[in-house]
Each structure stands twice: as C-alpha cells, then as structure tokens.
Design a protein that fits this description.
By secondary structure, this protein is α+β, with helices and mostly antiparallel strands. Helices cover 57% and strands 21% of the residues. The chain has a three-stranded antiparallel beta sheet. A hairpin with a 2-residue loop joins strand 2 and strand 3.
C-alpha cells in the first residue's frame, strides 16, 4: 500500500504538468463509491478553478457573474472528469457500504484546454460576447493547484 502512495508522490514531483487530487466516496457498491470519489474530485477541481477567475468575472461580467460561475463550474466538472487518471485506490467495507479514497492525477495542459472551453461555452450560453469575456477566458488559463488532503 505504501509503495503506491510513494509512487504517486514521486510521479507528481517528477512531472511539473501534473496536478494531484485526492477524494473519497461511499456507496453500497465499490463502483458507486468510485463514482462518488471521481465526482468529488471533479467538483473540488471545479471549485478551485472558479476561485481562480472570480475577480475577473466580477469585474468584467458584473450582473452575469453568478450565472457564469455556476455554468463554468458545471462545465469544468463535465470536461475534467474524463481527464482524471486514477493512480491508486484504498478501499474498505464499513457495514453495508464501501468507502474508498482515490488519488488522481490531472494533466495541467489538458485541464487548461478544458477550462478555456468551459469558459467559452458558459459565455456563449449566457449570450455574452467573447470579446467582453476575454479577460475571463485569459484568467481561466492560469494554472490551478488544489491542496491534497
């Protein structure tokens, strides 16, 4: 078990473009618990990405800022989920439920493309001109780091 955790940490240290995300899930089946953990990882990443652009959203989009942030977060979750690479899983049975803790890596280059696409689609869905939201799109390209638990 400790070997997989050490390998995960070494991988993160040796690849500057990787972000580490750890999350937990609980469900009656191991599959459901893994899905919960993956959804939680994507949601945590989306929250960190939203925080990254919050200032430019408030400044540039004013009355649309709350709607934009909500759409942006949902879009990021959708685009990031398939990019998450499972590195290891710790699992235990607790009564009738399985509890899992999963560590993922996320390639920052692919994630930056996903964030840009999420921002562009959120702007489009709200009917906001791309030029008006360009600083938001630019800010979406800043690297997002989230703290591992």
């Amino acid at each position: 078990m400790y070997e997989c955790i050490e390998a995960y940490r070494n991988k993160l240290q040796s690849h500057d473009n990787l972000i580490g995300i750890e999350s937990q899930g609980s469900h009656a089946s191991t599959f459901g618990a893994e899905q919960d953990a993956q959804s939680a990882a994507a949601a945590n990443y989306a929250l960190a990405a939203k925080s990254q652009i919050s200032g430019s959203v408030k400044r540039e989009l004013d009355k649309h800022s709350d709607d934009f942030e909500a759409k942006y977060m949902l879009n990021i979750q959708d685009y990031i989920m398939p990019l998450l690479q499972k590195e290891y899983k710790l699992q235990r049975k607790n009564g009738n439920y399985y509890e899992v803790r999963i560590a993922y890596t996320l390639d920052e280059y692919a994630a930056a493309k996903a964030r840009k696409k999420a921002a562009e689609i959120a702007l489009s869905d709200l009917g906001i001109d791309q030029d008006k939201g360009q600083s938001v799109i630019d800010d979406s390209q800043i690297r997002v780091d989230i703290d591992a638990e």
